[in-house]
Amino acid sequence: MKASVFVGTSLDGFIARSNGSFDFLPPDGGEPHGYPEFMASVDALVIGRNTFDTIIRFAQWPYENPAFVLSHRPLSPTPAGVAVERLSGEPADVVDQLSARGIGHIYVDGGITIQRFLQAGLIQHLIITRVPVLIGSGIPLFGPLLRDIALTHVATRQYASGLVQSEYMVSAAS
Q: What stretches in the chain show pLDDT beneath 50?
């Protein structure tokens, strides 16, 4: 199974403020930078509970793909027609469960979830879009690591608004 990350960060590496807000990101994602094309390539999302609790408060559920929320607690109700399911377990177990269902490419989102999947060696593809703002503190994209994770640079793109997007593959030796 392929697991990818597509995430926006402040220039100083935060995916959200300490309170979970990401009001520093451009509204509606800003100018086009490949997100719809990326979403068309994935079969499902795997998101953390905190990310789910933030997204469920949006005026409209933003995903068409099925979403699997990692949590031990029951989830808040979702809008009719939204495919959301709660899963729990270690990242490798989650990947095995989803592979058994025929899911071939997952989008992993949420700070802790991304960190856990990276630590488990389950992320192959990272697309990180940096927004030209420093927020000073918040929820970091990356946390402490038990070992180095080597990356191979694929491409870096810049956009008129100042967004800078870098794409990496996780090196096989990681």
A: none
